[in-house]
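cron nightly-structures :: item 1 of 1
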Amino acid sequence: MKLLTMNQSIVLFCIVALLGLSCNKEGVGGKASISGAVMHHEVAIPSATVYIKYGANAFPGFDLEQYDDHRTASTTDATYSFTNLYQGEYYLYSTGYDVSSMEDVSGGVPVKIKKKKENIEIDIPVTK
């Protein structure tokens, strides 16, 4: 078996490195988005905090330090938005306060972005 020359080895290494860099993982830098509202049954939860975990399709846990980013939902209709995302799996988790029932609420939902420029609209259901 013939061994590769030094130049062939360098070229092969560069090709493998470029292929590895071109594979985008979940996170920011893409052209997709996820948006929606935080809802407790039919009631919007204004000013709720929405956390996102990249590369997760199941609840990552209650430790909020483990999440990659967060947003505060609007004060009027409880809408949130994460933009410039790559394709992949994400988990959204939200915490807030329902003034109508005077209770803390939380909950989450997995989201999968399948296309590079996909705009997913999904409400986050929260409960007591």
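cron nightly-structures :: done
Strands lie at 28-40, 43-44, 49-54, 69-72, 79-85, 88-98, 103-113, 119-121, 124-125.
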